[in-house]
């Protein structure tokens, strides 16, 4: 069994395919994964062998340089794919890989929803996606779901980030939703 080396990992995902900070057992899921894209030396694989979970891997020269985990979750009255975990090797950060994966995911599945917590890097990606896609916010008051709210301006998007709103998810879609 060949182990794919992780260049470094800032935080280990709660996932059965991570062996340790330096090894990733891609062979464990490779047979159930399909190649969805190849470009500029990268191969992107999708594993959907787990119920309600999709994992995308960016592989370059037999090394995993990106891992994305999406969970299918019901929000209000419809299921959406939530970006639950995103990791890009430090040597590949700043090259637009995460944004490209999000855009590919939106193109393939129609929409993507943010997790509750956003790093400064992930906020930059969501801001960039906001310029191209329709954006809706789902706000909670003491974890009580509200309706999707269309976000039309940069200032509205900036107001959505905590600590202004404690619980918020952003939805980016190429289409629209009924609000």
Taken as a percent bin, the fraction of beta residues is 35-45%
CATH C-level: Alpha Beta
Number of helices, where a helix is a run of at least 4 consecutive DSSP H or I residues: 4
CATH superfamily: Gcn5-related N-acetyltransferase (GNAT)
* Strand line-up across the major sheet: 4-5-6-7-8
Indicate the percent of residues in helices.
10-25%
Overall geometry comes to globular
What's the number of structural domains? 1
The CATH topology name reads Aminopeptidase
Give average pLDDT, whole number: 79
Radius of gyration: 17 Å
Order of helices and strands: EEEHEEEEEHEHEEHE
Tell me the span between the first and last alpha carbons.
49 Å
Unreliable stretches: 1-13
Structural class: alpha+beta
Topology record:
Elements: E1 4-5, E2 18-20, E3 23-24, H1 27-30, E4 33-39, E5 42-47, E6 53-60, E7 63-75, E8 78-88, H2 97-109, E9 111-113, H3 120-130, E10 134-141, E11 144-151, H4 154-160, E12 167-173
Antiparallel strand pairs: 1-3, 2-3, 4-5, 5-6, 6-7, 7-8, 9-12, 10-11, 10-12
Overall description:
- By secondary structure, this protein is of the alpha+beta class.
- The chain has one domain (4-173): Aminopeptidase (3-Layer(aba) Sandwich), CATH 3.40.630.30.
- The chain contains four helices and twelve strands, in the order βββαβββββαβαββαβ.
- The strands form three sheets. It has a five-stranded antiparallel beta sheet with strand order 4-5-6-7-8, with helices on one face. A four-stranded antiparallel beta sheet has the order 9-12-10-11.
- Helix 2 (97-109) crosses helix 3 (120-130).
């Amino acid at each position: 069994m060949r182990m794919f080396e992780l260049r470094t990992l800032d935080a280990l995902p709660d996932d059965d395919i991570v062996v340790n900070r330096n090894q990733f057992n891609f062979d464990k899921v490779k047979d159930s994964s399909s190649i969805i894209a190849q470009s500029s030396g990268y191969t992107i694989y999708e594993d959907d062998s787990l119920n309600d979970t999709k994992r995308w891997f960016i592989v370059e020269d037999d090394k995993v340089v990106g891992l994305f985990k999406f969970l299918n979750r019901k929000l209000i009255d419809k299921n959406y794919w939530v970006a639950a975990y995103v990791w890009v090797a430090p040597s590949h950060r700043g090259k637009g890989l995460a944004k490209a994966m999000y855009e590919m995911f939106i193109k393939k599945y129609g929409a993507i929803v943010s997790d509750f917590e956003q790093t400064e890097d992930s906020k930059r990606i969501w801001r960039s996606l906001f310029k191209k896609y329709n954006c809706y916010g789902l706000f909670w008051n003491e974890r009580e779901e509200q309706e999707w709210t269309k976000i039309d301006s940069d200032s509205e998007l900036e107001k959505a980030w905590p600590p202004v709103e404690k619980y918020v998810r952003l939805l980016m879609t190429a289409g629209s939703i009924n609000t």
